[in-house]
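Table 4 source record.
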Amino acid sequence: MTTFAAGAVKGPEIDFAAISPLIALAVGAVVVLMAGLMRSRLVRTGVVPGLTVATLGAAIGLSVWQWDTQEPVIAGAMSIDSLTLGLTVLFCAGGIAAVAMAVGSVAADDAGHGEFHALLLASILGMVVLAGATDLIALFIGFELLSIPLYVLCASELRQATSLESGLKYLIIGSVGSATLVYGLAFLYGATGATGYEEIAAAIAQRASTATCSCSRASP
């Protein structure tokens, strides 16, 4: 019975080429974090930012490579299209600018160069997931993956009281916002019985059509 159940379970088909920019960002974040554990200061201050820029450049290159892709991926949870890929290029370009501005900053030294740049890559990954989300669950995952690293980055200057204060305030406001978002998404799922954008739109259109027909029948 166990063998039959295991054989019946089939995971969703995943186009790894289409999501290659996301894979590059995720793998790059892990590599940057591991490189930051090196004891050499040259590695931490030079190699780690270089690896971060290389990861963002690879994500941009892969986005250009997949530019003509127009398809849903991961069981329809995300859509890789020109808008998603264009925003990916924009986010990565902004990330490269952030790395350049962080060179020699106190925040990277206090938080740790590996942790600082890995959190930056994780936040950009959340932006890409949020941009390509076509499902409420993917939307929430992207929103949280975007926000949580920024909570830490806001408080990365450990010797500055204002930095710690900003991180705490952002954490409180972000937590309230996330809770409110989940509450609203739960209402939306309860009203439509679906989490996909297209299914939700179809359910709303059907309810509106039914309400219109009921009103027309009730009118004299």
